[in-house]
Amino acid sequence: MAMAAGLGEQSRMGLLVTKKFGPRIRLCKVLTDMPVKTDKYQPFGVSEFCRTCEVCAEKCPSQSIPYGPPTESGKNISNQSGPLKWYNDHERCFNYWASIRTDCSQCIRVCPFNKPLSKIHDLSRFMIRFKWPLVNKVLVQLDSILGYHSTYPASVFWNELNRYRKN
User: Fold this and answer.
1) Beta-carbon neighbour count of residue 84 at 10 Å?
2) What is the pLDDT of residues 27-52, one digit of tens each?
3) I need a labelling partner for 9 at 20 to 30 A (CA). Which of 23, 54, 126, 138 fits?
């Protein structure tokens, strides 16, 4: 529903990725009979980028996120097979969460769309919209070289975001 409403695109890790906030969002529904203007699906390169990237699959401690192209069949009963997409092993993910007694969010932390707003990251997001596989590969390699495939405290992200907003 969120994709149909034009809010973002589905990613390899199974989360909606938005243009502005990447995978760092929470969704909810509001039911109303009020007349509203409708939006439509607006892809901006996430799916094509995820075909190249696979960083969330590499860094997933429970190995719940699949490698390779999207498929039409889910991994287990927790998936509803049918649409062409990446099916995560949610049961394995949940078991990992239970074993560490908290949520993990490693996939969100290492996702290239989880970058603070800045001129260089804005340029990268702009280039992703062209859906060029070679450029996507270069951006993933740059992410690794610059240390973005490792996690960092949330406070670092928010401090950088606040600094960008002030400029």
Assistant:
1) 9
2) 988 889 999 888 899 999 999 999 99
3) 138
